UniProtKB/TrEMBL annotation:
Gene3D superfamilies cross-referenced by the UniProt entry: Hotdog Thioesterase
Domain of life: Bacteria
Organism: Bilifractor porci
Name of the featured protein: Acyl-CoA thioesterase
CDD domains per record: BFIT_BACH
UniProt record similarity statement: Belongs to the acyl coenzyme A hydrolase family.
UniProt cross-references to PROSITE patterns, sorted A to Z: HOTDOG_ACOT
Domain (HotDog ACOT-type) ranges: 8-119
GO biological process: acyl-CoA metabolic process
GO molecular function, one term: long-chain fatty acyl-CoA hydrolase activity
Lineage: Bacteria, Bacillati, Bacillota, Clostridia, Lachnospirales
Keyword field: Hydrolase
GO cellular-component term (any): cytosol
Short name of any one Pfam family annotated for the protein: 4HBT
Length: 157
């Protein structure tokens, strides 16, 4: 029987305070730095779920909603939304957190991670136990994104 894990088993929350080295020339969070942080969180979620090394296979969506500025607290929350045989979709939501704890979304991204063995060959991952309507909706959305990725690949872009 194949191992099954819950979304909560692999969730990751990471917090950064923006410093001058994180900013672009306009004084906002540099998008490339945020992409690096998101990729790191997505990888950690996938490592936790698969219990193995992983590689980032694709960035399916990366939507910048608003900027962030020096001294802002940036919160990244990653979670598994879908698993295939060897791949996993990881959603990472990024927020600016005010001093009173209120969070405003600034980014949402979906990364495709693949579990690999010591020879860097894809390996099976645990199944995902879906709990509740929210996780069911995440799973169904992931299936649609997968279909769209396959269609784009078929069409050559």
């Amino acid at each position: 029987m194949q191992k099954t894990k819950k979304v909560s088993d692999s969730m990751v929350e990471q917090i950064f305070q923006l410093r001058p080295e994180h900013l672009n020339g306009a004084g906002r969070l540099f998008g490339g730095r945020l992409m690096e942080w998101i990729d790191e969180v997505a990888g950690l979620v996938a490592i936790r779920h698969s219990e193995s090394d992983v590689v980032t296979a694709a960035v399916d969506n990366l939507k910048f909603i608003r900027g962030a500025y020096q001294d802002d607290l940036i919160v990244l929350i990653g979670r598994i939304t879908y698993v295939g045989r060897t791949s996993m979709e990881v959603r990472v939501d990024t927020y600016v957190e005010s001093l009173d704890g209120m969070r405003r979304p600034i980014n949402r991204a979906y990364f495709i991670e693949v579990a690999v063995d010591k020879n860097n060959r894809p390996k099976p991952v645990p199944r995902l136990e879906i709990e509740g309507e929210g996780q069911k909706a995440d799973w169904q959305g992931a299936i649609k994104r997968k279909e769209m990725r396959l269609q784009r690949a078929k069409e050559g872009f």
